[in-house]
Amino acid sequence: MDADARKIGPGTEGSQGQFPLTQNVTVVEGGTAILTCRVDQNDNTSLQWSNPAQQTLYFDDKKALRDNRIELVRASWHELSISVSDVSLSDEGQYTCSLFTMPVKTSKAYLTVLGVPEKPQISGFSSPVMEGDLMQLTCKTSGSKPAADIRWFKNDKEIKDVKYLKEEDANRKTFTVSSTLDFRVDRSDDGVAVICRVDHESLNATPQVAMQVLEIHYTPSVKIIPSTPFPQEGQPLILTCESKGKPLPEPVLWTKDGGELPDPDRMVVSGRELNILFLNKTDNGTYRCEATNTIGQSSAEYVLIVHDPNALAGQTGPDHALIGGIVAVVVFVTLCSIFLLGRYLARHKGTYLTNEAKGAEDAPDADTAIINAEGSQVNAEEKKEYFI
After folding, report:
1. How far, in Å, CA of 350 to CA of 348, rounded?
2. Which of 156, 162, 123, 150 is nearest to 209 (CA)?
3. Are 110 and 93 contacting, i.e. CB atoms less than 8 angstroms apart?
4. Residue 174 pLDDT
5. Are 111 and 25 in contact (CB under 8 A)?
6. What is the DSSP letter of 202?
7. pTM for this structure?
8. 17-28 pLDDT per residue, tens
């Protein structure tokens, strides 16, 4: 029970100046309401409770209205408390506590009755639903007061984009509320639980829920999985056709290069598996797995290349020795080239300096030295030495 304190009238000394004190009360439909009226000081003056129709319920400790739901809780000169059990919406209204002084003093207490929403129902689902169809689900609950709130969840995630409608019931006290959820389904929605949740203050933080598990039909998806990544001649091979769809596709159809399997004795189909007992080069080709259900058809292909076991043995990994030899040769050639280039540049630089110095030594003056140097350059080809 949720009570809202309400105090009416000033408190003064003596019953002549004393006002009764009451509280507003909120109770859930079907629950029990306690109505309490208190007087701090009272000189043997009577207290009385009356209902919204001004019918007297209790006068001091004397019951005035024949209603088995109304009982006395406590009666004294300072307090008069009564209980109303199995409260209905018709009990809602303003109750009056009267203190019979001259003149009579009164205090009002408003009894609010919460209407409990009925368990929600989800409509609009017709099983099965085809992938890509637009689904419209409606959740409805009646009898709430005030109007209840409806929320939608899918995969535990709240869906915000919904429609909400509130209508007053025939009793003009409670409400019927509904919410509509629209979304386009795909195969990932198959088996998903869509939940409609009703929140209301009368539910004491325990919401009411309705759940709809979706059933979505969709075309198969197909994948071929080989038993080994490198099929070798002479060894067996198993190709598994993994097909998913709803309804489940069964059985699957195997073909090779667009036709029937060429060697039924070696190529055995067992359920979704194609077993090739021992491989040879003639098995090379494109194998196709086809799955069909009532919604549609799908297929997958696998290109088989049968490898020579001896060739595969030599190709299991990179030849590190060969790579190392190539790197060594490249380094050696590079070093030799650098060495020869250095010798060449050094040799030519020495020849030039020698000729220039010789022309300067033999000349008696500067002009003759220049002429001798030019002559030396003309005959340079005759004076070069080769040590290579």
Report:
1. 5
2. 150
3. yes
4. 96
5. yes
6. G
7. 0.66
8. 588 999 999 999
